[in-house]
Amino acid sequence: MNIPANISEIAAGAKINEALETITDFKQNAYGGACPPVGHGIHHYNFSVYALDCEKLDVAANTSPVEVEKLVKQHALAQATLTGLYERK
Questions:
Q1: For the residues 26-41, what does the mean pLDDT come to?
Q2: Which of 13, 24, 28, 57 is deepest in the core (most CB within 10 A)?
Q3: Domains in the chain: boundaries
Q4: How does pLDDT run across 50-74, given as a tens digit for each residue?
Q5: DSSP assignment, residue 47?
Q6: 51: which strand partners?
Q7: What is the mean pLDDT of residues 22-29?
Q8: How far is the CA of 84 from the CAs of 15, 33, 67, in angstroms?
């Protein structure tokens, strides 16, 4: 989060120095990847980006996903979502 407005793309595996990775459902400050149960069928993974009415949100790296989502939605001007499908056989 807190990706500067002038960033228009992120290369695979790249990090943005100004950005902050808050804690996830994996209890880590990093993206854990898609991991549906084997043989459970196709799962949908939604990736959303938001335009906010402020330059940065004042949160710590250990802020819960629920609190981050609440703050993002309070400041959201626009949103775009990409849905990826993944299955482990």
A1: 87
A2: 57
A3: 1-89
A4: 999 999 999 999 999 999 999 999 9
A5: E
A6: 78
A7: 86
A8: 21, 11, 24
In sequence order, the 6+-apart residues with CB closer than 8 A to the CB of 11 are none
CA distances to 42, 74, 88 from 52, in Å? 32, 9, 35
CATH 3.90.280.10 fits 1-89, yes or no: yes
Q: What is the DSSP letter of 36?
A: P
Residue 76 identity: A
Q: What does the CA dihedral 78, 79, 80, 84 come to, rounded to 10 degrees?
A: 180
Residue 53 in contact with residue 77, Cβ under 8 Å?
yes
User: Between the CA of residue 72 and those of 53, 55, 67, 88, what are the distances in Å?
Assistant: 10, 12, 9, 31
| Residue (of 51, 46, 47) closest to 4 by Cα position | 51
Cα angle 82-84-89, degrees, rounded to a multiple of 5: 175
Mean pLDDT, residues 68-81 taken together? 96
